[in-house]
């Protein structure tokens, strides 16, 4: 069962520092762009992942094609993808042993969540950190980009 309690969500958001945002967009009106900018403003390092934009710069960060291309380990993978496209990304997160897989609002993959949890990863599903951070009073990341 994905992690959904306020206490567990708050614990995740206060412990992570680096996020791979899969489905990052260079279109400023897209939710993934807005959430990336918000998380950066809160002090998180957000590495954008989008094969169509790989090699480009997005909000000061280089975009990577996939999780396997990332130059460093991340604490969380945030998925801004259609649910049917999340399976391969969840499998990559398992292989890379990323501690947290976070599926954005509307992104629900029960089978992928079970598989990730069975591999020891924490899964959050159908939630948005941009909504949870202020609601739960999560402080800005210390030692981050602020």
Automatic annotation (TrEMBL):
It comes from the Bacteria. SMART domains: CoA_binding. Residues 12-107 form the CoA-binding domain. This is CoA-binding domain-containing protein. The lineage of its organism: Bacteria, Pseudomonadati, Pseudomonadota, Gammaproteobacteria, Pseudomonadales.
């Amino acid at each position: 069962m994905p992690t959904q309690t306020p206490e567990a969500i708050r614990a995740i958001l206060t412990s992570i520092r680096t996020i791979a945002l899969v489905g990052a967009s260079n279109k400023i009106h897209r939710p993934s762009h807005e959430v990336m900018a918000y998380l950066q403003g809160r002090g998180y390092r957000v590495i954008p992942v989008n094969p169509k934009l790989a090699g480009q710069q997005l909000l000061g960060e280089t975009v990577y094609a996939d999780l396997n291309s990332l130059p460093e380990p991340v604490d969380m993978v945030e998925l801004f993808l259609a649910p049917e496209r999340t399976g391969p990304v969840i499998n990559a997160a398992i292989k890379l042993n990323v501690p947290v897989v976070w599926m954005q609002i509307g992104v629900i993959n029960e089978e992928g969540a079970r598989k990730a949890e069975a591999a020891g990863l924490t899964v959050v599903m159908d939630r948005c950190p941009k909504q949870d951070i202020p609601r739960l009073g999560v402080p800005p990341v210390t030692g981050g980009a602020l």
